[in-house]
């Protein structure tokens, strides 16, 4: 292969160019495949057609939005939150940022459970008062 910076022919296993000291794949002046001079913004070598994307650009970690596909908002979390409100509440807090849909369902389940619990409690008090009178 050839140095992307100076066009010097490099050893296939060399990490840096022995002529200019640039790291393998860095620079944008020469084709790594045939050694022909290339334009600084060229995506492909006009001589051999090889792709000229620099190694550093390819190795950059990609930030793919995975949350949307992972978080389907499973209704099961709502059911879980309903039967075990404290778990639903914890899930709601923990997942608030990473899994907003599931967090909302778990939180809703917990909330419904709380509301029904309070309603039953009030109903029992009313019943007790009515029966006492
Ligand atoms: Zn070089
Ligand atoms: Zn080339």
How would you explain this protein's 3D organization?
This protein is mainly α and 133 residues long. About 4% of the residues have low confidence. The structure holds zinc ion (2 copies). One zinc ion (ZN) binds next to loops.
Keywords, separated by commas or semicolons:
single chain, 133 residues, mainly alpha, 2 domains, 46% helix, binds zinc ion
Rg, rounded, reads 32 Å
Average residue pLDDT: 85
Order of helices and strands: HHHHH
What is the number of independent domains?
2
Quantity of strands, as a count: 0
Per-chain topology:
Blueprint: H1 55-59, H2 67-70, H3 75-83, H4 85-94, H5 100-132
Structure at a glance:
This protein is mainly alpha-helical and 133 residues long. 46% of the residues lie in helices and 0% in strands.
């Amino acid at each position: 292969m050839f140095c992307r910076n100076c066009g010097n022919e490099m050893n296939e296993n060399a990490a840096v160019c022995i002529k200019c000291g640039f790291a393998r794949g860095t620079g944008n002046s020469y084709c790594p495949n045939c050694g022909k001079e290339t334009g600084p913004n060229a995506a492909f070598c006009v001589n051999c057609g090889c792709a000229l994307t620099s190694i550093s650009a390819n190795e950059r970690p990609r930030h793919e939005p995975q949350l949307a596909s992972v978080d389907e908002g499973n209704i099961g979390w709502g059911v879980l939150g309903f039967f075990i409100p404290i778990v639903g509440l914890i899930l709601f807090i923990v997942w608030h940022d990473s899994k907003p849909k599931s967090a909302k369902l778990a939180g809703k389940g917990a909330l419904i459970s709380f509301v029904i619990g309070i309603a039953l409690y009030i109903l029992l008090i009313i019943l007790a008062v009515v029966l006492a009178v």
